[in-house]
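Retro notes
What went well: the complex prediction finally ran end to end.
Inputs used:
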Amino acid sequence: MKNSIKVQRAIHELTQADLAKKVNVSTWTINMLEANKYNPSFSLAMRIARFFDKPVEEIFIYEEGD
Amino acid sequence: MYSNLLLPTKFKKAGWIMLIAGLSLGILLHFNSFVYQFFNMPWPSLFSEDEKSILVLAPNNIADELASILLICSILCLGFSREPNEDDGIAALRRESLIWAVVINYLLLLFAVIFIRELLFLKILAYNMFTVGLVYVGRFNYFLYVKYPVKNHEKLN
């Protein structure tokens, strides 16, 4: 599953550590999400989307086969 | 992985110390046939071959027991102590590493069953006790700290 977390972070001028603190996960998890190495749980996806004030499907792009 | 089953983070440091001690002693025992006399002492034995009673203190060289205890405790401390920032992502890495470790362990065992005979097979069985834990700890820490290290210093990367 692709995502636009890195773009949103750039818009909000946040580091990975800043975002990790805001959504209550480790910086490593944000790192993995941006590298598309980890699909988040529903609650984490919701927390990230709500933090950026965007719909989930705008941050996380579901692709066939995911 | 249920994070409330994990040990506190401070166990990790003790785990690394025990791993270094256990591996060093294990390697020494593997490559030297020399018996370290200072490891000779009475040791509890549940079923002794010499004694008819159950649970006796029998003389024993405890070097191999000590190496095994250190390795097992180190694997438990390193593999199952909470990371300072334990979360969903790290729990997923734990699960994945554990699956990899079990698969690799059985592939090694399968190889040994097919191709290795007699005393060497028993030796491999003894080492095989630790491979699942060591592969799990190795893969978990490699992915967490080496392959995908966190770059806190970069503003937007």
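What we learned: Residues 112 and 121 of chain B are 7 Å apart (CA to CA).
What to try next: split runs per interface for comparison.
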